[in-house]
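Page header: ASSEMBLY MODEL / two components / 647 residues total.
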Amino acid sequence: MINNVSKLRVTDGRVNKDIQSCAIFGVMDRSGRRFGGKMIIEAMKNMKVRGNGLGGGFAVYGIYPEYKDCYAIHVMFEKEEVKQKVDGFLNKYFDVVDDEEIPTKEDVNLDPPMFWRYFVKPQKKGKDKILSDDDYVVDKVMKINTGIDYAYVFSSGKDMGVFKGVGFPEEIAELFMLEELYKGYIWTAHSRFPTNTPGWWGGAHPFCILDWTVVHNGEISSYGTNRRFLEMYGYYCTLFTDTEVIAYAVDLLMRKQKLPIEVVAKIFAPPMWDQIDRMEEKKKKFYTTLRMVYAPLLINGPFTIIIAHHGEMIGLTDRIRLRPITAGEKGDLLFVSSEEAAIRAVCKPDKVWTPKGGEPVIGRLKKR
Amino acid sequence: MSKLRDPFMDNVRKIENIAKAVKFEGNMAKIDARELNHKELNDLIRLCVEKGAEKIILKNVCGQRYIGTRLFFPDKKVEIEIFGTPGNDLGMFMNGHKIVVHGNAQDGVGNTMNEGEIIVEGRAGDVVAMSMRGGRVFIRDDVGYRTAIHMKEYKDKVPVLVVGGTSQDFLGEYMAGGIVVLLGLNRGKHLANYIGTGMHGGRIYVRGKLEKYQLGKEVGIVEMEEEDYKKLESLVKDFLIYFKGKGLDEKLDVDEILGEKITKLIPVSKRPYGRIYTY
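Prediction written out in full:
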């Protein structure tokens, strides 16, 4: 089914199993003030050695206020002629309010595929009418990603967007002119050092479904179990990268099942059994139930992730913190970073701290 | 774009092109690290030592790694003072120099350090004193996960780590030697779990309340003896000298610190996993 990644992949064998680490960074203005990309680009430059130029990307929230009610579908085309198919598909299932090529700088030497964005509203017909708008969009995104070769939807939320590719983050930012063109109230970013899976344009972080995005440093040894569980709920992993499962798991648990992040964190990174044994009865029952019901969504292996969606940014590590995380605060700004220096490179924080493994750092939009 | 790029070595400037970042004042050298990457900064530090600097002051450090590494001079010992936030593996493989950080440090402070001293007037990240084999590290505040993992000793080379605050989980994991002191100043209870998991040498002193379940299976609690107190007294004295006036509570004194309950942890076996493997 999936045979369309050969060209986009970077298949240089030397990157296999090279031991290094990715860089992740997130910044949120909890007052909702929108700001430019300079801060996060500089922070990522500070951590340049954590990546190797085989993947960089950004998620930004609040960038399309003029199309607030439309899903912004970002698509990459490895072959330009595939665009016709995607156009046809989207016009069949959606009201395409507007569409355009995503502006990119011509003289950036990265050999990118073609990028297009569509602002769409669902046009549900027949049995699809029972689906919520969000579920409908998930279903159609999965259909494009699994059914139309050489085309990938890599961003599908409202008033937000993912921009990513093969290059260092500052190169990807330059390609998409992030600093000049966009303002948002949450920015997350990733610099990749691929270890187990190929470095290719679709495999760069962030991973996105609807407005849920994930950037990830680490590797998920439970990928197979997680993926099979998610398939039962209609999520299909097509991007050859373990992080994808986290994006879908977050969509399932937080959007569909409406669990708060405090609980989701304990599904991904549950307390050890011996810790549960020492809890009082009510907690013990809760955590035991959680571990039993959601065992297939326990994320094993080292990870630090930054999850974002409208109104919230969350930093989380595995329960024994096998990847680094530092949080920082300055006024309404909340930072989550792989390294403290990257935060200090862009501001003088009021406070920095290192959360315990498995304990989420949560930034929420203040109520106005 | 299949060409692999090396973020460490690509675009490293030649030393003559960055030498303007150094200013000598007698036997002291100042380096403005603002525009320097990891290798450039370490190249310049080495140059300063070669040119006879005894003290090197680094300004505007922000994430540069391996500071103090690549400074093997059998008969030269220098002092490096850092303003800003040094990057990972500060003082890695260091052999005899002294580093003072006016601020926080990141992961891997004193990694496999052989001799010398690192003083951090703030907190530090994960794997502090990892595989350390000699010298001393003093951290004013807290440290992260896996502190002193696989620290080791041999004859008179006994590494020492003193932490003013507390540590996160896996303190002293697989520790094979050396001394770790957790003073737990300004806090009620240590929260670290799995302390000393796989430990098979050395000793850990923890001041303040500690529950049995916080310990790994491979450590045991033993009574504090006169010799332990003597050792701790000298280390706490130095700790106070280093950090008084540097953000530490001015009222603290040795007797007050050592008057609190102190738990001494040592391994129960020199070969905890001997029976797991077959031969």
